[in-house]
Amino acid sequence: MVIAFRHAITGELHMLKKWIVASLAVALMIASITAQADTASPADPQAAQPAPAAPSTPAACSSTQEFFATDCPLTWHGITLYGAYDVGFGWVSHGMPTNGHNYEGESLVNRNGNRSRYLIEPNNLQQTGVGIRAKEKIVEGWTVVFNASTGFNPQSFEMANLAATNTVNNGRARQNYSFAGDGARAGQAFNDEIYGGISSTDFGTLTFGRQRALGTDVMLQYDPAGGAYAFSFIGYNGLMAGGGDTQDTRWDNAVKYRLTYGPFHVGAMYKFTDGQGGCYSASSTWTAATCTQEGTHNQAYGLDVGGTYNKFSADFVYQHVDQAISVVNPLLGPESLTQPYQSTLNSINTNPITGANVISPANTEYGIVTNNSAIMGTAKYTWDAFKFFVGYEHIRQMNPNNPLGVGATAQGGYRLSGVEDNNLDSPKIVQVWWTGVKYALGSKTDITVSYYHELQNDFRIPTTCSVAAGFRSSCGGTLNEVSLYVDHHFTKRFDAYAGVAYSDVSGGLAIAIPHGPGVPYYHDNNLAPTIGARFIF
């Protein structure tokens, strides 16, 4: 943590200290207010009576008063409506203008963040969205299950769409970007999940459709911050949950199987190929007429094995994705023809197309394609009011065996007018560690402290990486994030929170553009205090 903070300027450290003290003061104040309400007197006869056993299926809300006073589900004829609204206000030391398509806020250090800003911050603890789920019995022990959910920006009410944050910036000069990022939510009608299947009390659950990857499921369980965009690197970035690329945190056309047997559980998942592979020519001066169609080979598969013993639980996940796509920056255009960043070379081997474009570059992205394999181990332990979390993931990325070409499709059906399939000089190894603790201060308040560390190897050939030689994105590097936040539940559905996150990057991870001599981040750190509120139904 000392290393993580050494680059912060004096003013940022002063701001961080003020937010930490303020957050702890709020926590202690809330504790004093709620302590009497949370602790029953020994003389109270109700305190000595055991609580009634909880029903296996929560009863549906029977009145508006019950809806606001409890966490009863909104269920009608076996169909349940659910969702959340989460919005806040914050300050970032190095950010960009807001973008209505963005659903993650700007808490993490960003390659293009250029100055301090006050921002309306979306989805700090949870993605704002709505969904429906159903579970209908067909015969004894067997049910049909269904789930459909989507997310949106709580300020603009636009569908969550990180792909559009890139396309709306296409052609702009770097210093004029609004927020731009990459993610699996790309404007789809159901950008979270939509699947159906069958479930058995003895044989497990089998579902098919668009579903969260196994890594995403486990991340949400074993991240001390629960995937909170404002306070969690692994929730915000998606690298770990997607097994190497954030676009793979959700898989389309995927079958998922889960089975629980006593204290043990297993999960398996497979994604079928879909979309378009685009076209490619090996010629150094190729045209649209000489472009050969490529096939899609973007299948993916994963396995999860875990268990629970007393107050300890652990999971191990393996995931493999072919033709994984990562979008780095918006495309060049009229404002940026001479800017030393993001190439738009339209080929697998970075040779330029001559003559007419294969596809129009309008509303398209630039993608780096790899084959990814990842293995992750996680654990958590509950001790009195404390919950301890720890996790590690090892990711290996290689150039794809089956390349994609110009016109290939990414998440949300967006097409690539620029593709790189040979971006890696040698295998790229990314390792991610995280740990943290959540403390329950009474029954209504949680205090969470988290630390995340990403380490990238030097996969550059020749291996010339130093300050004097100049870093590139293929050089080794690190990213650190530390966060602290307090979350107080006024009711089962409504809570408010306050906290702060600090992150920094170094080496190859501090290079903003992966082409030619390294173009660094505008700033290699970011301080982001945030306050906000959430309503869940």
Tell me what the structure shows.
- The chain has 537 residues and is mainly beta.
- The protein has one domain: Porin, CATH 2.40.160.
- The chain has 6 helices and 23 strands.
- The protein has helices spanning 2-5, 10-38, 64-69, 162-167, 214-222, 233-237; strands at residues 74-76, 79-95, 115-122, 129-139, 142-151, 193-200, 204-212, 250-261, 264-271, 279-280, 292-293, 300-309, 312-327, 365-383, 386-398, 416-420, 428-441, 445-456, 477-489, 494-507, 511-513, 519-520, 525-536.
- The relative contact order is 0.16.
CATH superfamily: Porin
Cα Rg: 24 Å
In DSSP terms (H or I, runs of 4 or more residues), the helix count works out at 6
* Terminal residue distance: 37 Å
The global form is: globular
Give me the strand/helix succession. Answer: HHHEEEEEHEEHHEEEEEEEEEEEEEEEE
**Subunit organisation of the chains:** single chain
What would you call the structural class?
mainly beta
Q: Which features characterize this protein?
A:
42% strand
Give me a quick take on this structure.
This protein is mainly β and 537 residues long.
What secondary-structure arrangement, pairings included, does this model have?
Layout: H1 2-5, H2 10-38, H3 64-69, E1 74-76, E2 79-95, E3 115-122, E4 129-139, E5 142-151, H4 162-167, E6 193-200, E7 204-212, H5 214-222, H6 233-237, E8 250-261, E9 264-271, E10 279-280, E11 292-293, E12 300-309, E13 312-327, E14 365-383, E15 386-398, E16 416-420, E17 428-441, E18 445-456, E19 477-489, E20 494-507, E21 511-513, E22 519-520, E23 525-536
Parallel strand pairs: 14-16
Antiparallel strand pairs: 1-2, 2-3, 2-4, 2-23, 4-5, 5-6, 6-7, 7-8, 8-9, 9-12, 10-11, 12-13, 13-14, 14-15, 15-17, 17-18, 18-19, 19-20, 20-23, 21-22
